[in-house]
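Hypothesis: this fold can be encoded by more than one sequence.
Test: take the structure tokens below, design a sequence, compare later.
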């Protein structure tokens, strides 16, 4: 039973029995994410003060400039998750390949893999706009005590055992699910403790906010163009308004609280959409469904998409259920 003002630590302990694999391992795993989030939060908050922002000089596998804080967040999450004997492998937006942990050790009984975008929306840091961390957790499919393999990571979203995000915003929040609803915790920075501030978060069934980069409009599929026009056209009392931060976690978070839809469709610049299935779309889709919302690629449920590679991109439509249903209607009627 979620109690407001409970600390995240208390909540994790109290709720670990409701998780279907009852050992405390997943709780310890969430705890290590909590710890890394606090460390990254500390750095993100200093971003305007110290010379830590700006491109680090490397480019990641998608050919994008890495910001220094991306690299920092990546290191912190990997270090923290590696230290405890729970995780056998980590895949990250910032790493070309997955990282295996103690994989030559036959006594290594670690059962979980974590897929993570350590600092999503990092191009927003220089202008003081919120960024986030997104994570997705699976049980490995290969036997414990053997080296972790690519198939442990290429699992359908429906197999996730937990997922969540941290939003480093006007306040820092950790929002997560273990398949039993969605709860949000706000960091009290003075004492470094997360408190349950948003128990049982749910998307309103309908919403009035649509979030999409309309700069790409000309390249969108017909179904999406029609949906955007549907939101804009004056016909009776059309309630829609447009809000786009360009930071998935923040756009999702606002839409979950207020009711809305986030879309990153296909376009010629991004033939399969921009967002990555495994560490951006799947975790958000799991959260959305657990919060009575919906997520799809415009046709099929995001969590049913069969992954084929670690950094795979997919079109993504996510938010209030009735709004996502409407987009799917338009996609099946007007298509590409
Ligand atoms: P990133 O992982 O390189 O930060 O890209 C993901 C981000 C999302 O947070 C955001 O919704 C989207 O890219 C914005 O893209 P665009 O600037 O093309 O609208
Ligand atoms: Mg990202």
């Amino acid at each position: 039973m979620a109690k407001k003002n409970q600390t995240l630590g208390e909540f994790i302990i109290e709720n670990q029995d409701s998780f279907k694999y009852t050992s405390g391992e997943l709780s310890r795993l969430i705890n290590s994410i909590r710890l890394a989030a606090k460390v990254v939060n500390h750095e993100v908050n200093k971003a305007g003060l110290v010379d830590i922002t700006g491109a680090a000089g490397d480019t990641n596998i998608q050919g994008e400039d890495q910001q220094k804080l991306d690299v920092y967040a990546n290191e912190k999450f990997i270090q923290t998750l590696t230290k405890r004997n729970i995780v056998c492998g980590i895949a990250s937006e910032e790493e070309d390949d997955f990282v295996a942990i103690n994989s030559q050790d036959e006594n290594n009984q670690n059962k979980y893999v974590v897929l993570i975008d350590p600092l999503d929306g990092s191009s927003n840091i220089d202008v003081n706009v919120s960024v986030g961390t997104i994570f997705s957790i699976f049980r490995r499919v290969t036997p414990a005590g053997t080296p972790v393999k690519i198939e442990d990571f290429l699992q359908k979203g429906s197999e996730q055992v937990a997922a969540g995000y941290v939003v480093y915003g006007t306040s820092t929040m950790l929002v997560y699910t273990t398949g039993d609803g969605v709860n949000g915790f706000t960091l009290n920075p003075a004492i470094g403790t997360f408190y349950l501030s948003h128990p049982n978060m749910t998307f309103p069934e309908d919403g009035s906010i649509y979030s999409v980069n309309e700069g790409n409009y000309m390249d969108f599929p017909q179904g999406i163009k029609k949906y955007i026009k549907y939101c804009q056209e004056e016909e009776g009392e059309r309630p829609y308004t447009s809000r786009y931060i360009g930071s998935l976690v923040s756009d999702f978070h606002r839409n979950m609280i207020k009711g809305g839809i986030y879309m990153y469709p296909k376009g010629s610049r991004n033939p399969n959409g921009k967002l990555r299935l495994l560490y951006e779309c799947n975790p958000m889709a799991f959260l959305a469904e657990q919060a009575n919302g919906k997520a799809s690629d415009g046709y099929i449920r995001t969590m049913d998409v069969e992954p084929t590679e670690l950094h795979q991109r997919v079109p993504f439509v996510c938010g209030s259920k009735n709004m996502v249903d409407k987009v799917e209607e338009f996609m099946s009627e007007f298509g590409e």
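The radius of gyration is 19 Å. The first strand starts at residue 55 and ends at 59.
Hypothesis status: open.
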